[in-house]
Structures are given as structure tokens and as C-alpha cells.
Design a protein that fits this description.
Strand content: under 5%
Shape: rod-shaped
Distance between the termini: 28 Å
Structural class: mainly alpha
Number of strands: 0
Length: 79
């Protein structure tokens, strides 16, 4: 497990949801910037923002998955 994964493993479900929301917000901003850049013909800058949006989307998905795992683990520990 990497240091980042260990650190993410130690945070609460609520914190994972918060981080997921923050990454979704950043992804949205990058998608909007990519659209503007592509519209103005700036392919290189558009691609940069599109790639950044994708990275934030992946991070958001990972945090959402970690929150779900924590919830599932807490429920299984109650049984």
C-alpha cells in the first residue's frame, strides 16, 4: 500500500465523501475550461484541462469507493 493509500485508508467515511465532492467540483471546472479552450481552437490547452478533469474524476471515484467500503465494513462489524 502506498503512503497516499495508507493515509486515505485512515480517514473517515465523511471525509472521503467531502474529498469526493471537492474532486467532482474541480473536474467540473476543468471540463468547462476544456470546452472553452476547444471552442476557441486551443487544442493543447483544451486537452490539458480535459486530462485534469479526468484525473479529478478518478480521484472522486476512489474516495467514493473508500467511503462505501468503510460503510460496508462498519455494517458487517455490527452483525
Amino acid at each position: 500500500m502506498t503512503q497516499s493509500q495508507t493515509k486515505d485508508h485512515d480517514i473517515s467515511s465523511q471525509q472521503h465523501h467531502q474529498k469526493a465532492a471537492e474532486h467532482h467540483d474541480q473536474a467540473s471546472k476543468h471540463h468547462k475550461d476544456a470546452a472553452k479552450q476547444y471552442e476557441s481552437g486551443n487544442e493543447k490547452e483544451g486537452a490539458h484541462h480535459a486530462q485534469s478533469a479526468h484525473g479529478h474524476s478518478l480521484q472522486a471515484t476512489e474516495h467514493g469507493a473508500e467511503a462505501s467500503k468503510k460503510r460496508a465494513n462498519s455494517q458487517s462489524n455490527k452483525k
